[in-house]
Amino acid sequence: MSFTAEVKDELSRVEGGPEADVSELSALVRVCGTLSFYGSGAYAVRVTTETGAVARTVIRLSHKVFELDTQLTVRRSVLHKTRNYLIEMRDQPGLEDALVELGVLVPGRGLASGVPGQVVSTPGRRAAFLRGAFMAGGFIADPRGDFHLEMAVTGEALAEALVSVCRDAGVQARLNRRRGAFAIYIKSFDDIVRFLLVVGAARTARAVSNVRRMKSVKNDVNRSVNAEMANARRASGAAAEQLALIDRVEAGPGLSGLPPALRAFCDLRREYPDLPLAELGRRAYPPLSKSALYHRVLRLEALDAEWRDGGGGAGRSGEDG
Questions:
Q1: What is the DSSP string of 261-299?
Q2: Do both 150 and 237 map to the same domain?
Q3: Residue 109 within a domain
Q4: CB 52 within 8 A of CB 76
Q5: pLDDT tens-digit profile of 74-112?
Q6: What this chain does, per the record (predicted)?
Q7: Which pick of 85, 157, 179, 181 has the fewest CB atoms within 10 Å?
Q8: What is the domain extent for residue 249?
């Protein structure tokens, strides 16, 4: 089962009140249903979906809220090897009134545009409408990869209304036209978690938050390891440069005439060729600070530079304190 299917299965088990049920069924019919007109005042509704949880929810709410008769046909795609569910609500007493209450029809004006206010008039109804819209046309990426959530609908008015409903629910969503349809998408991790909590997918919201924490810990560990490796490479490179410097001084002015502090540093560096200066200072007797050893390196560099510039014998400065 895909991650999206798992979320929809969780949402199909959310129990709402009578008004919330109407709003949820309204979104399901609006997003993945089609309405047919027959003659004068005869209607039929067809809802198609590839998700069993969505089909069950449409049938359950149709029976529970409006006591409508439904017919279910299960078809299998040979090409994609997936099931397709067709739920039909043929013309029957109460269907027209149900369509009006669902906000699909406006009495005397035909099909509704956007989302009628009564369907999303309360926080509970807004949450139910978003739940139905996601179940009907939603996709959510596995949080272990690049995380995002979107809902695909047809009709610009409906798409803009969904963005507005998201905003009223405290979720920032954006609208994008895509291949003749519209996608309402949410990119922000915090907004996705908030959306999941609003629509009733608390279990998924917790799982997503756990994945984010694991990602954060993994990233912190990776950054720490990378920093340590970079420091080790820098320290190794610096130690190699100091050894090469000591070799040059030995071949030039020589080590025997160096002040005791500098000779001690050269001996210590050759004894421990890989240690960084801070650790090297702890091996000295008495222990020395990193800055003290670095000062010795600078003095050796100055002696080497004087010799290279033809200054003759190296200067013999006093010992370090």
A1: HHHHHHHHHHHSTT--HHHHHHHSSS---HHHHHHHHHH
A2: no
A3: yes
A4: no
A5: 988 766 677 889 999 999 999 999 999 998 988 777 788
A6: Involved in cell division and chromosome segregation.
A7: 179
A8: 231-308
